[in-house]
TrEMBL record, chain A:
GO cellular component terms listed in the entry, alphabetical order: plasma membrane
PANTHER family, alphabetized: ABC TRANSPORTER PERMEASE, D-METHIONINE TRANSPORT SYSTEM PERMEASE PROTEIN METI-RELATED
UniProt xrefs under InterPro entries: AA_ABC_Transporter_Permease (IPR051322), MetI-like (IPR000515), MetI-like_sf (IPR035906)
Family: Belongs to the binding-protein-dependent transport system permease family. CysTW subfamily.
Principal location class: membrane
Protein name: Methionine ABC transporter permease protein
Membrane-spanning intervals of the chain: 22-44, 56-81, 87-110, 150-173, 193-215
Membrane-topology annotation of the record: Multi-pass membrane protein
Automatic annotation (TrEMBL), chain B:
Gene Ontology process terms (BP): amino acid transport
Signal sequence range: none
A Pfam family of this chain: ABC_tran
InterPro entries: AAA+_ATPase, ABC_transporter-like_ATP-bd, ABC_transporter-like_CS, ACT-like_dom_sf, MetN_ABC, MetN_ABC_transporter-like, NIL_domain, P-loop_NTPase
Domain AAA+ ATPase per the UniProt entry, residue ranges: 32-220
Keyword DNA-binding: no
Keywords tagged on the record: Amino-acid transport, ATP-binding, Cell membrane, Membrane, Nucleotide-binding, Translocase, Transport
Taxonomy, superkingdom: Bacteria
Domain called NIL: residue spans: 265-340
Entry protein name: Methionine ABC transporter ATP-binding protein
SUPFAM superfamilies the UniProt entry points to: ACT-like, P-loop containing nucleoside triphosphate hydrolases
GO molecular function terms attached to this record: ATP binding; ATP hydrolysis activity
Amino acid sequence: MLANLLPNVEWDMIWAATVETLYMTGVAVVATFILGTILGLLLFLTSKGNLWENRLANMIIAAIVNIFRSIPFIILIILLIPFTKLLVGTILGANAALPALIIGAAPFYARMVEIALREIDKGVIEAAKAMGASTATIIWKVLLPESLPALVSGITVTAIALVGYTAMAGVVGAGGLGNLAYLEGFQRSHNDVTFVATVLVLVIVFVIQFIGDFVTSKIDKR
Amino acid sequence: MCMITLENVTKIYEAASGSITAVDNVSLQIKEGEIFGIIGYSGAGKSSLIRLLNGLEKPTSGKVIVAGRDMANIKGKELRKARQEIGMIFQHFNLLWSRTVHENIAFPLEIAGIPKETRKKRVDELIQLVGLQGREHAYPSQLSGGQKQRVGIARALANNPKVLLCDEATSALDPQTTDSILELLVDINKRLGLTIVLITHEMHVIRKICDRVAVMENGKIVEQGEVLQVFRQPKQEITKRFVQQVVEPEETKETITHLLDKYPNGTVIQLTFVGEAAEQPLIANVVRQFQVDANILQGKISQTHQGAYGVLFVHMDGEKEEVARAIDYIRQQQVAVEVITDAR
């Protein structure tokens, strides 16, 4: 029955592509979360009136973030080819997509982190200082926990964007559902393969959104 | 012994529109164990002043000594250590919403590096002290304003500080809750011998709990002294206005005008009581001893931390000489008398 409706779909190929997409998204989300949080913290801490206020450092970080956020992802992949080759040794396969995915998504997430941190009541930071907290304590015990719901909903949005990015990366040889939809589906006019790949991408996006919303509502005690 | 000494402290903020002198050459001494109030309208510089005491702000010039430490010149670890000995509570409580009551109170103990077991015991003690039993595992969003401030107080006391700074601590609370928080502060002051410095714009707060008060205007301290003394003889115009906030019933002026119109005969007098005099049956004695009629028109007696203070408006009718003798008698009872001839 299913084989009749979807004559060209080879399920082991689909499964392998899904795993690749999940792998790329998963690694990229984790790395983006770490890198983006660090960048976002730096953006916040160096801004006016904050703990490490420093105009020059703030301008430099903001410039880097803005540049990488503005480059269209498909162009970023091409620009990063030499870098990827140096780092991963190849420009094909799931691992080769990771540098571009992370560099593309981290600045995007860093801005969300910065916004989340700015939402924290200044009074709470002042109270921690008045208690004799060090900057490290303020970061770990005030800034991150107090902005956690916003950080989680931000990484949810970023993760969904990353699923889209993996599909784009797939077109230029990174594997995954995007690659499958393009090579097997589009190039060979097997619309059923494209359809199945699309449905799977949608399922992944819905699941990410569901998990994100669930976690956010659990940790938000405001 | 002086817990806090300020010597010629000035704080200037450099802003794009020019420099602003928030604290202007302030000298102040606060004794160990006293409750010291600083009153002023918003913008008078009192928030800057209180933040100089725990080094959240650094003075542009002058000396700030708190518990033997020079707060203006210490940095890093030493400053953080000093701050652990100075608790602070805030108008908007500034609790961490991501932590429960218990975890919020434990936070300063974590900063001080207290081991977990000791921390738990200390937090339980503090919860008892501020009367929050049963709410340990609630989040701040589930508490009322008064309860939040109790958490703030417990948190400020966690590391057994020598000084407690109160930054408009009751300004966001309703009158009843304000009173209960003030009572808690007095209780803590008595029990722990803690020095309390509070800033406020409400004379009511000063009257209720302070031993001494300083009045701030445009960054300067324009008047300071014992609370009762300041109530009795306010020197500056601004102080008089603050004192009126609590002692004079509202619409006093209108009432007096009305009274003078209504009683063209006889005399309207204003009596000012301080301390013990407020507790004697003065009017009854006057009526008994002199041939006068006394009609109480309006009055208010306020309790300060050091004694009562009150104002009474009385209409007295009778023979001129008899009224004059009655007034003399009242004067002898340590009560200030002012004959009102117009509504000022």
